[in-house]
Amino acid sequence: MTDAGSGFALVVRFTLHPDMAEEFDRLTAQTVAHIRTEEPGTLLYSCHRVQGASDQRIFYELYRDRAAFDAHERYEHVRQFLAARKRLINTVEVDFLDYVDGKTPILDDGSSDD
């Protein structure tokens, strides 16, 4: 698989316009269905509701490398998502991450102390 430090990750926080959560969640589900089946370089694409903030969503995205992320951005289903979400969101914050350490079945080499 990949070396633990070679993944490319980001966290995205969306704050939605009032009453747009249901539509945003539908759009997300449609997009993720394509990501699951059509993006081998997308290792993890995890979408979350924020407890106590019904108008917020957080996505955690992990790609094999920067090239896989760049490919993700070019897929038609992603381009449609990016265009359609504009009218649903108030703000979007993106943090690009540098891996330091942790436990993940995706990045770990499979060895275990368990």
Automatic annotation (TrEMBL):
- Alphabetized InterPro entries for the sequence: ABM_dom (IPR007138), AI-2_Isomerase_LsrG (IPR050744), Dimeric_a/b-barrel (IPR011008)
Any idea which UniProt keywords this protein has?
Answer: Monooxygenase, Oxidoreductase
ABM domain sequence ranges: 8-101
Q: Which Gene3D superfamilies match?
A: 3.30.70.100
Pfam families found in the cross-reference section: ABM
MF term (GO), any: monooxygenase activity
Which PANTHER family does the record cross-reference, listed alphabetically? ABM DOMAIN-CONTAINING PROTEIN, QUINOL MONOOXYGENASE YGIN-RELATED
User: What name is this protein filed under?
Assistant: Antibiotic biosynthesis monooxygenase
Specify the taxonomic lineage: Bacteria, Bacillati, Actinomycetota, Actinomycetes, Streptosporangiales
